[in-house]
Write a structure and sequence with these properties.
With 170 residues, the protein is mainly beta. The protein is 14% helix and 49% strand.
């Protein structure tokens, strides 16, 4: 009886986790960066609390960006990430500096296990990163967030644009 109750408890916790995860990350259609030769294919992009584009990002809050991708070649070197923010033609301080190591944020899509910086061609991986939206960013409508992954040779693995707007906290 105790084993059955424990199994039911674990099942409820797992289902609650997936129900919560489904409510917070929404699939969005984003565009690859203009004129950028990526060495991977992006399958899907998910952004927390973003039902439609442009994503409404609350200043002073956190946002999770997650995407699935397939590298065209094996990658055995450090992978870095960057997230640049622009409003029209004005650049703001980045959400993530280009020197940030991305490896701890990459998992194998099928197993969910961390893979470090060793990625195999034609396998599906998920990059997931939670970052803060500065309360110093201005309230603005025309925001573009460009997320990128780079290899050791500074070649672009993934580059995508997330249209957004910064809103005041409620």
């Amino acid at each position: 009886m105790a084993l059955q109750m424990r199994s039911i408890t674990v099942l409820v916790i797992v289902l609650a986790f997936y129900a919560h995860a489904d409510k917070t990350l929404y699939r969005v259609s984003v565009h690859p960066c203009f004129g950028n030769n990526m060495t991977a294919i992006v399958l899907e992009v998910r952004v927390s609390d973003c039902h439609t584009l442009p994503c409404q990002l609350t200043r002073g809050s956190q946002v999770t960006v997650e995407f699935d991708f397939i590298p065209a070649t094996n990658i055995k070197s450090d992978i870095t990430t960057g997230a640049a923010v622009t409003i029209g033609d004005i650049s703001l301080p980045d959400l993530e500096s280009k020197e940030s190591l991305a490896c701890p944020s990459i998992t194998n899509k099928q197993s969910g296990l961390a893979v470090g910086c060793k990625l195999n061609a034609k396998e599906v991986y998920t990059y997931s990163k939670t970052t803060s939206i500065s309360d110093k960013y201005p309230v603005a409508e025309n925001v573009n967030i460009q997320w990128e992954l780079y290899d050791d040779d500074d070649k672009t693995i993934v580059c995508l644009n997330v249209p957004a707007k910064f809103v005041r906290s409620k």
